[in-house]
Amino acid sequence: MGLWGKKKKFTRIAVERLQPGMYVSLAERWWDHPFLLNEFTLESEEQIELIRGLGMTGVLWCEEASDKGPRESAGPPARDVSGADLLARARAKREERRGKATQARERTLGAEKAYLHAASELRDAFAAAHSSPQAAVDKAMGIVAEVAGAFSSNQDVSIMLLSDRMASSNLHTHAINVMLLSLMIGKSQQMGEGALNQLGLGTLFHDIGKLKVPDAVRMKPEADWTRADHAYMQMHTELGAKMTFTLPEFSPAARAVVAMHHEHWDGSGYPFKLAGDKIPAAARLSAVADRYDDLCNPARMHDGISPSEALSRMYTAEGAHFDPEALARFIKAMGVYPPGSLVELSNGAVGLVTSVNRDSALRPLVTVWQAGTKAEEAPVIDLAVEPELGIKRALRVSELEPEVRDYLNPRARTAYFYARAAAA
To answer: Phi, psi at residue 64, to the nearest 5°?
Structure first.
């Protein structure tokens, strides 16, 4: 991970002795400088002219993080372009970045507000599921109509990573996550609004049968299940499907999601051991989303793996379980680095992926750790508009220094909600 996030030793050096290849910190002027980050490696003489334009006579320099040392004498004279012009252009670029970051935060806050409403409605629906199933479905249909309507519109929809306080209930969080992720795949297949509504309804209720499974069994890690526990847990698909038989809102496609989301493409799943195209299309989509969220959000939090590790496992070790097209569309939509992934950027910066750009999945939005700024003011870098930057690799939580981990707050549980694309 290089030296990002680690304690560095800085010394002050005159601006005249700067040259490309030196690692500098402008944290003392974080409110004023026009650069993307407080700490960075100088890449051009133009950047040095920008620093001169700030009126700075000296900066902080880290020798161990630098490719080159200071010049022996003063650097080249300023170019024809005035420092003031360079500074004005750079500050305009900074304001554009700040605007995008503010917009991203506002979209996340809006998604969190909508998620809290949906989670509250879903809790009420699940509470009424046994005594008044029709009332439960009526509640759920309000959620489905809103979310599926967004996915069926022509406007781009993004999956946003929410703060960790949103994922307070594994049952409700899982239902909403699976609905959103399934609808994302459905949108990529250009499903119509009616099909998306039924997919949304089925996925929102896909685990409703688990409400009849005792917590002592449901909360056990799968590795500790007895044969009886396995049998009991597998009954949740049948129990859930039976609850939908008298509800006219459930089409065969929605009911198939509830009954068959654990079927496997290779025929190794349950309850019917169907294979390939014999598994209804909606159930095949929901199987991908359900497994992904189970890997990221298991019953016991410490058994969870990172989003990028979950995608890797599904593609390599478990690929035979899933409809190849559905899995490929899911991976393309989520990107190699899904929301919730910790990453190292090409310049060594460390960040948390918070949203994926639909048209550029390899270039998501990343919230970056930055010394000298508050976590709530952390830079949000849209890699789709920062061509000089890219993602170098995914990181594990254990690779982060405590200060960086606390700042980025990687999620023990991941919760998502959608946000419509920002207005142009």
So the answer is: -70, -20
